[in-house]
Amino acid sequence: MFWLGKSTTFKNGEKVGISPIEYIILAHLRRRELINAGKHIGQYGKELMSELNKLFHGSWEAQSGTIYPILNKLEKSKKYLGGVKEDTGLGPKKKVYRLTEEGRDIIDRIVKENFQSDEFFIQRYLELLETFKDEFEREDEEPETLSCLKCGLSLNGAEKFCPECGLQIPRD
Questions:
Q1: pLDDT tens string 16-56
Q2: What is the pairing mode between strands 6-9 and 15-18?
Q3: What residues pair up with 147 in beta bridges, in sequence order?
Q4: CB contact set of 43 (below 8 Å; sequence gap of 6+)
Q5: How far apart are CA 64 and CA 46, in angstroms?
Q6: 75: Cβ–Cβ under 8 A, 6 or more apart, which residues?
Q7: How far apart, in Å, are the Cα atoms of 13 and each of 9, 10, 33, 95?
Q8: The whole model's pTM is what?
Q9: Alpha helix ranges (H) inside 40-153
Q10: Averaged in consecutive runs of 10 residues, what is the pLDDT profile of the chain (172 residues)?
């Protein structure tokens, strides 16, 4: 399923896995490279969080207490990222994270191996929820408010006659 950690098995039998948030970070960085003609561009941690938050628009929020430890792990122990402090021209140097060849290879392999099953799952998941969405939209609709044409009393729509003045309520 798409929200679970992903893994791939290499020809030598080694199985390598990544967590869902590692997957999101690596896929995001790789996507940036791909839309920039394969240029190995990097990203500051704060900029990465901002773009992820924009992308997920409130359904999930990237927070520094989660993202920075994962960036550190992807750099130091997994070697999927390289981090280099660069001069920003304003204030202190900031670390720019770039995919390593190994990081690029792992995310490409995992996305390729899981794309069809993830896409299928997401489509079925949305189909499952579509009925709920329709029901919620009906529940959220404002009930039609009626007013007596003679005295102006607000009516709930079930009355046949106005309880104030006795006028018959016309039905469509």
A1: 889 999 999 999 999 999 999 989 888 999 999 999 999 99
A2: antiparallel
A3: 154
A4: 29, 32, 51, 96, 97
A5: 8
A6: 81, 82, 83, 97
A7: 6, 5, 29, 34
A8: 0.73
A9: 45-56, 64-76, 101-140
A10: 72 86 96 93 94 93 96 96 90 93 95 91 90 78 74 80 82 62
CA distance 145 to 120: 43
**9 residue type, one letter:** T
Report which of 92, 85, 103 is spatially closest to residue 18, judged by C-alpha positions: 103
Residue with tokens 């929020």: 61
- Residue 62 CA to residue 71 CA, distance in Å, equals 12
Report the alpha-carbon distance of residue 95 to residue 89 in Å, rounded.
13
Whether 149 and 167 have beta carbons less than 8 Å apart is answered as yes
Domain boundaries 6-139, CATH class: mainly alpha
Nearest to 22 by CA among 116, 107, 118: 107
What is the secondary structure of 62-81 as a DSSP string?
A: --HHHHHHHHHHHHHTS-SE
Q: Which of 84, 61, 81, 64 is nearest to 73 (CA)?
A: 81
For tokens 């990203």, the residue is: 43
